[in-house]
Amino acid sequence: MRKGQDRYHHGDLHRAAIEASERELERHGAQGFKLERVAKSLGVTTPALYRHFENKDALLRAVIWDVFLRFVAAVDGAVTAAVDPRTKAAALGKAYVRFALKNPGWFRLQFSRTGTEQLAVRH
């Protein structure tokens, strides 16, 4: 029985590659990001990643989008929990900074020219 294209020996390689790439970004930043290290951390070859992502930029777009959705959820959750406009504004600012501190590699990439260009290609 053959494994499906979206599966690998540890489960879902597509999802695992996004998560491993997030860790790679946190450790090395966008400039030091290496697909080879992502593949090695997953116990697969670099070409295995190309079955799920067209290239490095496609993987980075997936990471940016994935973490951006979590960012929106965190900020939205903080703002919706607040009642008055002043409290909402404070909650928004705190959630924004908290998320940036927790995800510095992604945050730098997301709001860089490279990150903005990556998202523009996707949508």
Give me the CATH superfamily: Tetracycline Repressor, domain 2
| Topology order in helix (H) and strand (E) letters | HHHHHHH
Shape: elongated
Rg over C-alpha atoms, rounded to the nearest angstrom: 17 Å
Sketch the major β-sheet: none
Number of domains: 1
The CATH class label is: Mainly Alpha
CATH architecture: Orthogonal Bundle
Task: Describe the oligomeric state of these chains in a short phrase.
Answer: single chain
Helix share bin: over 70%
Report the CATH topology name.
Answer: Tetracycline Repressor, domain 2
**Which spans of ≥5 residues are poorly predicted at pLDDT below 50?**
1-6
Summed up, the helix count is 7
- Taking the alpha carbons of the first and last residues, their distance comes to 37 Å
* Beta-strand percentage range: under 5%
Tell me what the structure shows.
With 123 residues, this protein is an all-alpha fold. The chain has one domain (13-122): Tetracycline Repressor, domain 2. 72% of the residues lie in helices and 0% in strands. Helix 1 (13-28) packs across helix 2, helix 4 (56-81) runs antiparallel to helix 5 (85-102) and helix 4 crosses helix 7 (113-122). The longest helix has 26 residues, at 56-81. The model is unreliable at 1-6 (pLDDT under 50).
